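Subject: Sanity check before I submit

Could someone independently write out the structure tokens for this chain? I want to compare against mine line by line before I put it in a report. The sequence has 125 residues.
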Amino acid sequence: MTASGAAAVGIAAISGFIAVALGAFGAHALRARLSPEMLAIWKTANEYHFYHALALLLVGVLARQAPTTNYGVPAACFLFGTLVFSGSLYVLALTGMRWLGAITPIGGLLFLAGWAWLAWIALRS
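---
Independent answer below. Compare away.
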């Protein structure tokens, strides 16, 4: 496995672990503490976190299959998209700081860029 592929798989595994832990935390510890609106925000953050942990895993596997292709851009987009999108929503749900909603779309744009770049890699091969 290439170094970038191994790194992507390792980071994906850590991200997936954190997604499961935060999902369980939201379902058990936060259910009685958050309003239904904030719990829905937490759930959205967790779903996108998990989807993009799996996307990062896919990038790592693809990097293993085609070590000469640079999968670093989509990997970075998925990782930083998760940090910005899901991270801002997790904090918003916990704190109610609505201004965080202003940075959430940046994470969404990073997700879109990662998927677009991955499509570009696939279609040009």
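---
OP: Matches mine. For the report I'm noting this point. The chain has a mean pLDDT of 95.
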